[in-house]
Design brief:
Layout: H1 3-11, H2 13-20, H3 26-60, H4 64-110, H5 117-139, H6 146-169, H7 173-207, E1 222-228, E2 235-242, E3 248-249, E4 254-256, E5 262-264, E6 266-267, E7 271-272, E8 277-283, E9 292-296, E10 299-304
Helix pairs in contact: 1-2, 1-5, 3-4, 3-5, 4-5, 4-7, 5-6, 6-7
Length: about 300
């Protein structure tokens, strides 16, 4: 399908469905989406390349020979990003096309859609997704209003999407809207939850909290209020508080000194309920201070310093 016919089908979806509905092959649809992705990737990469050129000129233009070297490296990097955008964008477009189509098709079938997954996916690829990417790549370059026009085109694509689904599944406009609304909402919600989860574990790994290498659910719930006994072979007394929501067993806690020596932490209470505090003692075996680390099965290591 030529680009001109793609754009006509996008603007006039009823004409597009009359001409192409049920007649598209997988080769047509995949090629259409890839071409649209390459065109959009070209536009994105070109924008980045121009921004890189402007940055190189403003940053290194006055540095003489050194500026030429650094500028050349920056331009080469911009060119690589340009080519990369033309490769990555169509790949992302194809993956997103299939994921979106699966979600929409499931909802459509639940509410009585008649079209097959194959027919719907091919129609969405050639009549909605491919022309949308091509138009976005064209209008985004218009000064001042380009981004706004791209937004308007995205809004118009909702109409095209609705018509294509309505004609594919032979049901009402309302059901077509329900299909894409719930289907796409599920996809975007899943992406948001997944990204939030990865961000949570990533931040946790940086801060010592929950991470991919998870620690027990009741970990880091103990805090040491005071610690004393700085001289060797003396007894250190610690006030330990449970600031978590679960009861913690204190029978298996150990105190590890800087020299590697381990000693049992002897506490007044064997269990510590949420919000309570108890006294614990430990003998300092020649480490020179009462500093060290508390370790145990239900907690992650807690540093203690007098």
């Amino acid at each position: 399908m030529s680009i001109k016919r793609k754009l006509h089908a996008f603007v006039h979806p009823m004409d597009g469905m009359t001409e192409f509905g049920g007649k598209l092959t997988w080769g047509n649809a995949v090629l259409d989406v890839i071409i649209g992705g390459v065109i959009l990737g070209f536009a994105i990469g070109l924008a980045g390349f121009i921004a890189m050129l402007v940055g190189v000129h403003s940053s290194f233009g006055s540095l003489g020979p050194l500026g030429m070297i650094l500028g050349g490296a920056g331009i080469a990097m911009g060119a690589m990003m340009w080519v990369g955008a033309m490769i990555v964008t169509p790949i992302i477009a194809v993956i997103g096309w299939f994921i979106d189509s699966i979600a929409i098709w499931i909802i459509a079938k639940i509410i009585g859609g008649k079209g097959s997954f194959s027919e719907q996916t091919k129609n969405l690829g050639s009549l909605v997704i491919a022309p949308l990417m091509i138009i976005d790549a064209m209008v985004v370059w218009i000064p001042i209003v380009g981004a706004f026009l791209a937004f308007l085109v995205s809004l118009y694509s909702v109409y095209t999407l609705t018509v294509v689904l309505k004609e594919t599944h032979k049901f009402s406009t309302i059901r077509a809207i329900i299909s894409w609304f719930i289907g796409l909402a599920g996809v975007y919600l899943g992406i948001a939850v997944g990204m939030a989860g990865l961000l949570y574990f990533w931040i946790g790994g940086l801060t010592g909290g929950p991470s991919i290498h998870s620690i027990p659910s009741n970990s880091n719930m103990l805090t040491v209020v005071t610690a004393c006994g700085p001289s060797p072979k003396s007894t250190s007394t610690l006030l330990v508080s449970n600031v978590g929501t679960q009861t913690i067993s204190l029978s298996n806690l150990k105190f590890v000194y800087p020299n590697g020596t381990k000693a049992n932490l002897k506490c007044k209470d064997t269990k510590l309920v949420s919000g309570s505090t108890t006294k614990c003692t430990v003998t300092n075996f020649g480490s020179g201070s009462g500093s060290g680390t508390i370790v145990g099965n239900q907690i992650s290591p807690i540093g203690v310093r007098c």
